[in-house]
Amino acid sequence: MALNGCYCNNIESVNQRRPLDNLGFTSSISAHKLSKNERSASIKSGNDKFHRFVVEMRQTEVPPSKYGTNGRAVKMVPATEVVKKKTISENKVETVNGSKKVVNRASLVRRDTTPALTKTMKPESSKELPPLEELKVLPSDEGFSWANENYNSWQRSIDVWSFVLSLRVRVLLDNAKWAYVGGFTEEKQKSRRRKTASWLRECVLQLGPTFIKLGQLSSTRSDLFPSEFVDELAKLQDKVPAFSPEKARGFIESELGAPINVLFKEFEDRPIAAASLGQVHRAILHNGEKVVIKVQRPGLKKLFDIDLQNLKLIAEYFQNSETLGGPTRDWIGIYEECATILYQEIDYINEGKNADRFRRDFRNIKWVRVPLVYWDYTAMKVLTLEYVPGIKINQVDTLTSRGYDRLRISSRAIEAYLIQILKTGFFHADPHPGNLAIDVDESIIYYDFGMMGEIKSFTRERLLELFYSVYEKDAKKVIQCLIDLGALQPTGDLSAVRRSVQYFLDNLLSQTPDQQQTLSAIGEDLFAIAQDQPFRFPSTFTFVIRAFSTLEGIGYILNPDFSFVKIAAPYAQELLDIRQRQPTGPQLVQQITKQAND
């Protein structure tokens, strides 16, 4: 899920905490210990002044076996007796990627419900959570039919199929030469396609979360859809309606099993970001720590179930249609991939695990930062993360005015992704500017871990073989690698495919340095070939290509002299060193080094 607010524009030290003693709170466990006699006296006297509410908050990673039925790691319960805990001095504190991480202890926060203390606990929102500006959050979703509780499956199916059939007619007319007044021209067709694409985007927005997410996924599939559609659907990344704060509060309370004022000292009603599957609110825990809460849209699972049943029928319809490339396009497989991705994204426990794993992968890289997960405030449909504000990576003027090194930032963005693809095999599948920000120390902050990709060791080996084959201009080997990767079906005569691949390789590798294309242009050329051939690129492959294209675009915004080849050359050479025993190894190293120097 793309959350475009990215907690940006209010840079402040996450470690700056306001003293809590005057609010009736403390981070010191030992300060609140009661002796056995004190506890007995308070219980015998029945004095409510000594009633305590204990909230345990762990930031450590929690194995799945410890989750409750609602996905939460630990229940929050009132207690009349404080269980003896270790003092803070007895515990270890580890720093990971610039964030404090609590190890081997539960940080207790206790509230005394005496009248004097209750009065002091009044929230001061103007000081604690300063307002954010320029938020791209549209009005509430209340006007949409899919947000209506009485909206049933029959109505939904009618809406979905009406949209699909209307789109089918529009596409047929766009491609029919007889439908153009005054004769057919490519310019007229492009103009009409742009109008259809604009209509498509508006329809997708009206149809709601499932189709918004599918539209975002489709914006990465230039191998399947016309460029006009891809460009228009990419605009869905920034504009998604929010749902009401009343719904958000109710949903959080239902999922976490406690009222908002018990869970949080302060909760901000206005979301700082809204996306197709949910939205993000800021809050403050009772111990003063600032967090962001990602809340799933109410009723989303039910809507997904209805929509995906219809989409399966649509995929079968496309598969049987020759005009939609049925024989050469695995629409059923594409549907199954999309369904898997969508269901994974609405599992916030899974997203929390993804964030923890991603942080572990970069534990030795100090300039990559991943927000901590607060498992005690996380469930299947509510995810609470450390509040890590930053400047959007593409906000060049702000970065420049604050003296940030744009060249270093552009290099780090690419290097971090190369590490994900070539070393860890676990990568962020949606690194657009809304999900990347810059910290005060020029670290790269990653947000949103709902859509992640994984490259298995076998796939990495095949990609390495593909890498060698490309630089050897060996179309036959390239085709075999694509077959091994599942991107090409080994059926029928592949002579035409081989000629297309050879033409692509000859043009790509014969360019002089001043003729070299951007990654985006190379990807478009590759997908253009795929549209006329029996290719079916796995979603992982298309995610990687789109991600590198996006990051390259960010690189050029930050640094006009940006060169992906120069940044990638050391990593490519490291890969080639693995095959140094092969005769072609040294020559390939020299070739890549020469291109980087040029």
From TrEMBL:
Classification via InterPro entries: ABC1_dom, Kinase-like_dom_sf, UbiB_kinase
SUPFAM superfamilies linked: Protein kinase-like (PK-like) (SSF56112)
One GO term of the biological process aspect: regulation of response to reactive oxygen species
A single Gene Ontology CC term: membrane
Superkingdom as given in the UniProt entry: Eukaryota
Domain ABC1 atypical kinase-like: 235-480
Pfam families xrefs: ABC1 (PF03109)
PANTHER family linked to this entry: CHAPERONE-ACTIVITY OF BC1 COMPLEX CABC1 -RELATED, PROTEIN ACTIVITY OF BC1 COMPLEX KINASE 7, CHLOROPLASTIC
Similarity-based family: Belongs to the protein kinase superfamily. ADCK protein kinase family.
Entry protein name: ABC1 atypical kinase-like domain-containing protein
Provenance organism: Trifolium subterraneum
Organismal lineage: Eukaryota, Viridiplantae, Streptophyta, Embryophyta, Tracheophyta
